[in-house]
Write a structure and sequence with these properties.
The complex is a heterodimer.
Chain A: H1 27-44, E1 52-57, H2 59-67, H3 78-92, E2 101-104, E3 109-114, H4 119-139, H5 141-146, H6 152-170, H7 172-184, H8 202-219, H9 232-236, H10 241-248, H11 255-262, H12 268-289, H13 291-311, H14 317-330, H15 346-362, H16 366-371, H17 381-391, H18 394-401, H19 404-410, E4 413-418, E5 423-428, H20 435-445, H21 448-451, E6 455-460, E7 468-474, H22 482-496, E8 500-506, E9 512-518
Parallel strand pairs in A: 1-3, 7-8
Antiparallel strand pairs in A: 2-3, 4-5, 6-7, 8-9
Helix pairs in contact in A: 1-4, 2-3, 4-13, 6-7, 6-8, 7-12, 7-22, 11-12, 13-14, 13-15, 15-17, 18-20
Chain B: E1 2-5, H1 15-24, H2 26-39, E2 49-54, E3 71-76, E4 87-89, E5 111-116, H3 118-129, H4 133-140, E6 145-153, H5 163-176, H6 182-197, H7 203-222, E7 233-240, E8 245-253, H8 260-280, E9 283-291, E10 295-298, H9 300-305, H10 314-327, E11 335-342, H11 351-362, E12 368-374, H12 387-398, E13 402-407, H13 414-427
Parallel strand pairs in B: 8-9, 8-11, 11-12, 12-13
Antiparallel strand pairs in B: 2-5, 6-7, 9-10
Classes of the chains: A alpha/beta, B alpha/beta.
């Protein structure tokens, strides 16, 4: 299935000289192309970006970055080595090619480009990452709310040296065990509804950790070891469950946060490790929520910029053909019954939606006027797009902007799958009755909070049995994957130090569907 | 905007992660190596190894929604024929053709394949054989490099300038750019002189000749005779310095009493010897000779796989070895190593002949002759001496380049080489 783009590339008619010809790139050329694109991106499109930092790397370094979830700095852990070994094997066998670029939500915005790229690809990458993603990172409310791009590199530096220091002090095994457990709970390390405190700078973190340790070492005195630890206050307080619950802030959805603050047996450095993993998870949360929009925005921006350059005469015909070739393979969307199908391509859908918004603004049909009365014919498509990029995430974006025309173009249809039935049922297709339904279901598919299981800490007994209880609120009868859940629960028990119970109950909370339990291994 | 060139940053940034990863999966990788040894050729012992492991200790579990309960829905692209209410039969193993999420058994983990480097492989391989650490280091130590011709380059020290190449390029360039030759200029000068000497002088012709001459001279000045782009230098590559060449004879009893596990043990032994030899010699040839009551040179596959019926006469193998040596591997040119594996049986009357062959003809020309007697653990008993063991004991006492060992499991193999290496270390 081919999704046609509404806008044909313009004619090369400008009288400016081409910026480059041939495939060799140089640092000067990259700089020149970057600056010229800036005229278009900032001047004509009105994008607003962090200053750019473009770094040229080799394929091996790209693999390196892949394995450390795309970050330039990362603490050491075997799972990154595993990822590297796997990606390397795929790459060497030619089963997977590397991305042309990698971009980091930081200030200045760091984009990695590969030395193997041709000049055309470098230009494409600069337009895509250094302008497209960069603008999205800086302006989307999710990123503004959750991430502090000016601190992330510093913080990773801190995390790396802190983990290394812990390995030295407490041994690789102990650190590994804690990190394994923390990684297992990473997806439950996000506070979805709270706005996090402004994150501390690396320096403050370091000082805090050092203070903590210094205090410990200064106050450590073997003589006092025999003294009872319990303070008077706590001992006399009646064990009132209600009070305890409130004190612990239950229910709590952020498992890592809860453990960091309340797990009875953890050492301070282990709490710090949990915190590192939790903050990373929080940092990546907006990226999970806006994957499709982010790619759509970047793809749209590179498409517009490259076409403008071509129109101005600054790209040769050959360059344009090379660009269009790779652009069209990026936005290729195979049908569901195609062997190559692996879900909706975020580049394809994102790009198509951006283009569609442009079309609705400039050449609306009667249908568009009914569906998007505010948008249709408003003319200033760039303003409309900038607004959409700033104020939405994938879920709300689809809900707001997916037009009937796109549903028809993609021939989207919704199927319902009941685990008990032998067949799936088609619920809605691209017709008058189906548009709204398809749109609603697709939006829900992009809602990260419905894709992750809804888990909360609901009870913790700190004075008696010290048992921890988690509750999984089961939506639509979908239970947790049993083996995975049990293995993860084992990690959780390891961190908590005592018995842990996981109850799966229906949303109303009156029927227990399944229970799991785990005890920490001695 | 800032551009940073990171290409020269230190490589292998993820080395620390890799080490942690290997440490984590060590047990499973070792198992995988053991399996792979069976299918591996002796000469390939050292090549980088692709290892597939069941990644039990590499699991990274997380809470995720199962696929066997409840209801969910998907939005898919590319609808061609479906209408609302149509039913689509479920594909096997996952709903909606959505990736390869579930696997039928509860384990739910794919096999994990990756490539070990040579060093990593050797580390793990030797780990099992209980090699002392010191020797491991020595084994991986490469020989001093030797320079080997490797084409030409445009840059290099003057001593490496390749004159022939340089001049050839220079000539081609001069011809292409039409640089006037010296003879051409001389001829013009003579013509000019002749024209000037003429009476009466023809000013037009003199002027014309003069301008032509000037033009040629200008060309000669501006087009260099040898330009930097003509320069060609010999290029050299560094390759590990070869000591010389060696041949390794693998002798094995092929009678039915050598069972598969015994052969596996023997194979480990041969492999180890090969690894050792490739450390010291650039070229190592392997000759496989198996014997029953007759001996024959065979290929590796037949050597380890085939079984034959018949008695056991070891001297036939030794004779075959002598014959191959005479035909192809003269002791003057080759270092000769021999490794013999057997379960200790031999036709009784054959022993004296064997010992004679060994003492008189083979041991004097062999660098080293190693004999291992493979046996199942329970059959191992020091009080029972097999005929071969009994016979060879005497040889071992007299000859320094003869070693023998009984082997019941892989860790017994290494001590056989101990002598070889301590001798070598002393010599070095």
């Amino acid at each position: 299935m081919a999704v046609t783009t509404s806008k044909k590339p313009g004619k090369r008619r400008g009288n400016m000289r081409p910026l480059f010809d041939g495939s060799e790139w140089t640092f000067e050329l990259i700089r020149k192309v970057h600056d010229v694109m800036g005229e278009i991106a900032l001047g004509e499109l009105g994008l607003d970006i962090y200053p750019n930092q473009i770094e040229v790397i080799t394929a091996e370094q790209m693999l390196d970055s892949y394995s450390s979830i795309g970050m330039p700095l990362m603490y050491r852990h075997w799972s990154f080595g595993k990822r590297f070994a796997r990606d390397e094997a795929y790459y060497k066998r030619g089963m997977r090619s590397l991305a042309y670029e990698l971009v980091i939500n930081s200030d200045p915005c760091i984009s990695y480009v590969m030395e193997e790229n041709s000049m055309t690809m470098q230009a494409l990458v600069i337009a895509h990452a250094a302008y497209g993603h960069n603008h999205f990172f800086k302006n989307n409310y999710q990123f503004q709310l959750w991430t502090q791009p000016d601190h992330i590199i510093d913080y990773l530096g801190f995390a790396k040296s802190y983990v290394a220091e812990c390995e030295e002090r407490y041994g690789q095994d102990a650190v590994e065990t804690t990190l394994d457990a923390a990684h297992a709970l990473m997806n439950q390390g996000v506070s979805r509804d709270l706005r996090p405190r402004p994150r501390n700078v690396a320096k403050r973190e370091q000082e805090k950790a050092a203070r903590r340790r210094a205090h410990e070492e200064a106050t450590y005195d073997d003589i006092y070891r025999t003294l009872p630890e319990i303070t008077k206050e706590r001992a006399t307080e009646p064990p009132e469950a209600q009070n305890e619950q409130r004190r612990l802030g239950l229910p709590e959805e952020n498992l890592l946060y809860f453990l960091e603050k309340n797990a009875p047996k953890l050492e301070d450095w282990q709490r710090e490790l949990l915190r590192i993993v939790r903050l990373l998870s929080q940092y990546f949360y907006p990226q999970r929520q806006t994957k499709m929009m982010n790619e759509g925005c970047a793809t749209f921006v590179h498409y517009v910029i490259m076409n403008r350059l071509y129109e101005r005469g600054q790209l040769t015909d050959g360059t344009m053909l090379e660009f269009l070739h790779s652009h069209s393979s990026v936005i290729f969307q195979p049908s569901f019954n195609d062997r190559r199908f692996s879900g909706l391509n975020p580049y394809a859908l994102g790009f198509a939606m951006m283009n569609d918004i442009r079309r609705i603004c400039t050449e609306p049909t009667q249908e568009d006027r009914e569906w998007f009365p505010e948008l249709a014919g408003s003319g200033d498509w760039m303003e409309a797009l900038r607004q959409a990029w700033a104020q939405f995430r994938d879920e709300s974006f689809v809900l707001q902007y997916l037009s009937p025309k796109l549903i028809r173009d993609f021939r989207l249809f919704a199927v319902g799958d009941d685990a008990k039935e032998a067949a799936m049922e088609v619920k809605a297709i691209h017709d008058e009755q189906g548009y709204k339904d398809v749109r609603r279901r697709l939006a829900r598919h992009y809602d990260v909070s419905t894709q992750d299981p809804d888990l909360q800490v609901t009870d913790a007994d700190l004075s008696g049995s010290r048992r921890l209880v988690l509750t999984h609120r089961v939506r639509n009868g979908v239970l947790l994957d049993k083996t995975e859940a049990e293995r993860t629960l084992q990690y959780l028990a390891q961190l908590w130090g005592y018995r842990v119970k996981l109850i799966e109950q229906d949303v109303e909370g009156n029927r227990v569907l399944k229970e799991h339990e785990a005890l920490p291994m001695p | 905007m800032q551009i940073v060139d990171r290409r020269l940053n230190p490589k292998a940034k993820s080395l620390g992660n890799r080490q942690r990863f290997l440490r984590r999966a060590k047990g499973e990788i070792r198992e995988a190596i053991k399996d792979s040894l069976r299918s591996r050729k002796i000469a390939e012992t050292e090549s980088a190894e692709k290892v597939t492991i069941r990644s039990k200790s590499l699991r990274e579990p997380s809470f995720s929604l199962g696929r066997n309960s409840g209801t969910r829905d998907y939005v898919l692209p590319g609808n061609e024929q479906y209408k609302v209410g149509d039913e689509i039969p479920k594909p096997q193993g996952g709903a909606g053709g959505r990736g390869s999420q579930g696997s039928p058994d509860g384990e739910g983990q794919d096999d994990f394949t990756f490539t070990l480097t040579k060093d990593e492989f050797l580390d793990l391989f030797f780990d099992d054989l209980k090699l002392p650490n010191l020797i491991k280091v020595k084994l991986k130590d490469l020989k001093a490099p030797r320079l080997v011709r490797a084409g030409f380059t445009s840059d290099g020290p003057p001593a490496r300038l390749n004159r022939t190449r340089t001049m050839r390029r220079s000539l081609g360039r001069r011809m292409a750019l039409r640089r006037p030759s010296e003879a051409e200029v001389k001829r013009l000068e003579q013509e000019l002189a002749a024209a000037e000497a003429e009476t009466p002088p023809d000013p037009k012709r003199i002027a014309e000749l003069r301008s032509r001459l000037e033009h040629k001279q200008r060309l000669r000045r501006s087009i260099a005779y040898i330009d930097p782009i003509d320069l060609a230098y010999n290029r050299f590559d560094r390759v590990p310095k070869p000591t010389t060449q060696a041949v390794m004879f693998c002798l094995m009893d092929a009678s039915a009493s050598m069972t598969e596990p015994l052969k596996d043990l023997a194979k480990r032994f041969f492999m180890l010897l090969h690894v050792f030899l490739t450390r010291y010699y650039r070229e190592v040839h392997i000759v496989f000779i198996r014997h029953t009551s007759t001996a024959a040179e065979v290929d590796e596959e037949t050597f380890f796989r085939g079984t034959e019926t018949g008695g056991t006469v070891i001297s036939t193998a030794l004779e075959e070895m002598l014959k191959v040596m005479r035909d192809r591997y003269s002791p003057a040119d080759w270092n000769i190593y021999a490794a013999q594996a057997s379960d200790g049986d031999n036709f009784h009357d054959d022993m004296p002949h064997c010992l004679e062959l060994l003492n008189e003809q083979l041991l004097p020309v062999c660098q080293y002759f190693a004999y291992i007697e493979t046996a199942h653990g329970e059959r191992f008993n020091d009080t029972v001496e097999t005929p071969v063991w009994h016979g060879y004991t005497e040889v071992a006492q007299r000859r320094r380049n003869f070693a023998m060992r009984r082997v019941a499991s892989p860790e017994d193999i290494f001590p056989v080489f101990h002598e070889l290496f301590s001798a070598d270390a002393a010599a070095a």
